[in-house]
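Re: weekly structure request thread

Next one in the queue (817 aa):
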Amino acid sequence: MSFTTSAIAARLLAATAVCSTLIATPAFAADDPKSVVAADKTPEDAPDQLTDIVVTAEKRPQSAQKTPISISVLSGDDLANRHVVSLVDLGDGSIPSLKVAPFYSRNSALIVNIRGVGVLSDSNQPARDQGVGVYIDGVYLGRAQGLGTALFDIENIEVLKGPQGTLFGRNTEGGAVNIVTKRPSGEYHLNTIAGIGNYGAYKGEVHLDLPAIQDIAVKIDAVVSHRGPLVRNPLTGADGFNAYDKRGLHYELLWKPTADFSADYSFDTSYDASTPLYLQLLAPGTYKQAPLGTVQPQRARDANVGVPQQPSVGKVRGNQLTLAYHPASALTVKSITAYRAMTQTQYDNGSAASTLSASTATFVGKDFAGNTIPLPFARYSLADFRQNQFSQEVQLIGDVAEVQFVAGALYYQEHVEDNARAFYTNQCTTSACTAYTILPPNFRTDVANYAALPLDYTAQRIDRASYVKTSSVGAFGQATWTPAALDDRLHLTGGLRWSRDAKQGTLLTVNGKLPVDRRGVSRELPLDARWSRVDPMVNLAVDATRDVHLYGKWSTGYKSGGANSRSQEYDAFNPETVSVFEIGAKTEFFDRHARFNIAAYAGTYKDIQIDFQRPYVDGKNGATTRTTISTLNAPGTGGIHGVEAELTVMPVRGVTLHGSYAHTYVHIPPAVNPYPNAKGDLSTLAVPIYQTYTPSDSASAAADFEVPLTGATLRAHIDGNYDSGFYANSNDPVYVGANNPGNVYQPKGDAAFIVNTSLALADIAMGQGDAKVTLSVWARNLFDEQHVFYKALYVTTGLQGFYNEPRTLGGQVQVTF
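Done, posted below.
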């Protein structure tokens, strides 16, 4: 779906009209009341100026306006206004430079890109990493899996843009996402939320802050959130598509026996069950279309055929101990120790229509008795993923004369293993495939060479499996010199980080068999690779006035090397790197009623990790590209450049307007596929490589309103989010050869414009102490806009894609004490 400027303007005007209508209708009520004013505030206490946003981007609390990097912050209030349940909800574009999306059809693993850098291809495997680091309270989360769990009580989410290799280290070449939770206050507070929505949705939250006893403060958070399927599955007893069931528990103990020492221990456990997105057939290809595989060019509410489907279940738990000691007023020694463990199943049977897009002849095979039978369809993928990680970071933060400094060291180790099965679950009952049945146990067909299909799908043959241990150490230092002779207006910062990574692992299985090495020997293949890296940073910042801050920065970052667990020989690939120059201005004006920040950047992008499918050859079935993908570092030098701008205005007390925009350009040099195609041809053609999940233009606008009423406060929020569409796959042909120009092409996804809104009647006194009630209603994708964000065009089997989520809406009640 495409948008013209006039169409976008019309929708923004419509959104404004809706919001005006909501404000004029006090009988309706609100979203989360913590979204605008704290529970113990009255409307008269609300600020009449823009307030400082405190961030920890440089390992110490400081004003975001005085932090000389490009950074965006979503507060807990912002998340509540947008009804954000988990990180995947940020995929609507609330921060234009940040793109969050499910990995293919799986909400159980998330892609996170900043400024077009992060994930180019598949990071959903043990020995590959993402290029954007995700942290919670300073602890790095090592895997794409587990990021879809429900969020606890969030103080804010800091999005640090551009390479953060000096202070944050490996896998932050695109930037970092730092999630900060609310700490125990030592005072009694109780915040409870209960809500319902369409598609069978419900949610509940309890946040309990207890009074300190013997210098120990305790905070407990419990959350539960559920939504039924957005696309129905016709098979009785099977789960539908794009549903979730999330719940979690978090508790934290803060011991502060003296003013100079604190010990903060936290534990969290989460359960996240989700079903995959539904892959629709949008247009037929050159092959004759099976009648069952109906084309669905609009967003479907019902799948065209019923398939066995069960939830993917993720279980995450974590322990963290943070010690802070202040031996002097200007010196802090900090230790962060963490252990986290995660298991994740990934079950995906959402692409039945694509397997029905084939010539009629391919539906006929023979069983082992020689009987002619229709071939099966509906490929069910079952993948299991396990990970645990330990990290220890020590920081020294202080001030000496005119110098602020931070230094430290990090040790990180993780163990990861995965396996995957893929098999068909449905069978055509006629040669023309006008009807189907679910395959019974012990069904086999030698044509596809699949093992018996037992009642327990997890007992199916393992097609691929691997294991890896990653160890990383690093040491870093950064200092900022602010000479008093220049009236403390100039700040020169220099930083350096040394890192050493090691990955040791084993490729256990390829297509159900032992891997075969280059000498033709079947055996488990080892991975043993090490890399060292130094990342520097230089930043010159000038306070032109009290409210105008300028900076210029050069920094580098890298994504660790590794190996592809889908490959045939488990060859290691090297790290990819970025080097970026950035200039920016952070300004406030109109007596702090307006804030405008802008940044422009340009740099190089090297050794980019790209994938090519490599045909797997066995003596029985010839060449196939099934599950075999190799990763290599692209030759040549790529580049990135872009512009980011944010404007926040508070024209009058109770009204806040915010707008942001990002233009992003990523160039990756064309690359030659080094592998023969299925016909045995060796590619001689360079193919274009696309940066994935990166719209060239994106923007977001939001308005928050607060109107005092007698005995309550009316609050309203509306936001509109636009992106110009993006590629979801990194190269055009699956395989290219001199006599085979390829059979799959990557069209760009549709442009999108999503509007979210909420309305709250807040701070209604209950007449019992400080207890207050807030009533709220909310809507995501208010206008039920449709766009296909993921597209793949197969010449033979047609155009396929994933639609965005339809309109969801609901209401909730919140009680605070």
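Residues 205 and 223 are 4 Å apart (CA to CA). The longest strand covers residues 403-428.
Next request, please.
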